[in-house]
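Bit of a strange request maybe. I'm writing a small parser for structure token strings and I need a real example to test against, not something I typed by hand. Could someone generate the tokens for this chain?
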Amino acid sequence: ILIAGTSGVLGSTATTLNYPNGITFDANKNLYVADSCNFRIQKYTTCAEVTITIFPFSLVTTTTIATTTTTVTAIPPCAPQSRSSGTLFSVTNPTSSTYPTYTCYAYTWVATGSSATLSFFFRHDPGGWMLDTVNVYHGLTQLITNGGFETGTLSGWTYSGSCTFYTGMAYSGSSYAESGSYYYYDRCSSNGDTISQTFSTVAGDTYVVSFWLTNYGCCSPTEIANVTIS
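Reply from user aminoacidic:
Good idea to test on real output. This should exercise your parser:
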């Protein structure tokens, strides 16, 4: 049954979809389609050839068996990887960098307790790691405070570590940020430092973690980035 888009044709236009895997209707009988591989929600208005794209982080899936159940889950800005352990991302002495372009990293993780801590550890001799747009979603609830560092400070984050030179801090510069006007720039040398946030979780529930990272001054003898959730 064709409900939206073009039958048999994959795409990202107003009339094509890529792996639609959920639909729902609002009170005005407008149709919403979860276009998951395009990371968007498509709205098809009632009795009109009008399509509206709704960005991002919203996936609605509806299953009807006598009654209707609606589940709402965040879609990250890039395809997520599943993680069962506390280590989401780890690299030591990379041999290449995408700078000045940021790389998106996204993960799904199942909570095991009533709280969790997301931590970013960096060391860089002598360049720096650049981090921006950190998100943790439980359903559509955002759990991270100041994930884009747009306060111009590390408010919401806990800082720890010891650096011979240059501690990590929020920097201003829209041309260097992944989005907005600020980003986190960490040039900690010799030892390393960490920023972290702790938030409440529900054991057994799935959480969607995403962030954007790039490496300025690659590739020197000692460059480390570790991202963990525990």
